[in-house]
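Quarterly update from the structural biology core.
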Amino acid sequence: MKNFITLLTTVLIVNFGPIGHANEISSTAGVLTIDNAWVAEAPPVSKVMVAYLTISNMGYKAITITNAESELYSSIEFHETIHENGMARMVRHDELVVPASSSLELKRGGKHLMLFNPSRRLKVDDTVTIKLTTTNGTIKTISVPVKKAQY
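Predicted structure, tokenized:
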């Protein structure tokens, strides 16, 4: 009987272990939450806008966001403002990493989303839909309000 229980336990672990792991991976975006998201209203002729938000990872593994897109923009890039020797410059990143059980704040003077070539003028109270894609292909869709730029 003891051998049977050991064998049954081994079979269950071998056969069903990967399923649990697959569910965990496929639900990666489920552990991401978005707070304080907003797009800064830009002047009517501006070809570039900026979005700020806080991305929280409630999971136990870091999550890497590899792409952001919106039907309203030709492209969205991950940028960071770096201050060196009294000068500020912008650096483009290929991805954003949200540490496990932590948050990544995209804010003025730091990391942010650059939104290029809006297809129409966006004004205060409009909403922008942005899709964030993780390394495993999971997509998190967020609705982001346009607000008056705060300088």
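The chain is about 15% helix and 50% strand.
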